[in-house]
Amino acid sequence: MHCWKTINVKKEYGSNRLFTLAVIAGMGVFTTFYVFLTFIYTAPLSDRHFLYFILAIVAVYPLHKIFHFIPLMGSRKCLKFILRKQLGMIPGMTLHIKEPVAKTKFLLALLSPFILMNSVILLLSALFPAYIHYFAILLAYHCSLCLTDLIYIRHILRTPKHALIEETDTGFEILVPEAIS
After folding, report:
1. For the purposes of burial, counting CB atoms within 10 Å of the CB of 105, is it exposed (0-12), middle (13-18) or buried (19 or more)?
2. Spatial separation of the C-alpha atoms in residues 40 and 23, rounded to whole Å
3. Which pLDDT tens digit goes with each residue over 30-67?
């Protein structure tokens, strides 16, 4: 095996640019989703259960990280959870993979939070139309969190079919067998 390419989105794009893109994407998702749903549902909106909404906002980030873990359940021995403070006070979770993972499994791990959580939010917005404003905010926030994952997916889809993905300090390395290069 040899390294075909190293991907480090934060180094390539920069943290400020990624944050700006995430905010723009979140605002676009909120606007589109909210306007679309207000055309479909004419029921009056309710501000009841605001505490549940705040709890949901707080729970989105940890659930997002946990859903990355689900497709890698068989590889528990090579996974490492790290909790650390970001910006001096905000807890941040990272999941490190100690061994190379197949490209398809890694893509599934990147896609699972996007598919699962967004599906649940969309389903709940259809079931409870009086709270579509809450669900629009939740969906926008989660799509903003998924932006980096989607950028990594775009890069990984362009890699060779039988590639393995390994996480290092410099980013994700795409490993390919010698015969494929």
Report:
1. middle
2. 26
3. 999 999 988 888 888 888 989 999 999 999 988 998 89
- Reported as a single tens digit per residue, the pLDDT across 13-30 is 888 999 999 999 999 999
Per-residue b or e along 107-129, where b marks 16 or more CB atoms closer than 10 Å to that residue's CB: bbbbbbbbeebbeebeebbeeeb
Query: For the chain, what are the domain ranges?
Result: 2-176
pLDDT at 70 > cutoff 80: yes
Least confident of 41-55, 133-147, 157-171: 157-171
Q: Which residues contact 96 (CB under 8 A, 6 or more apart)?
A: 79, 80, 81, 82, 167
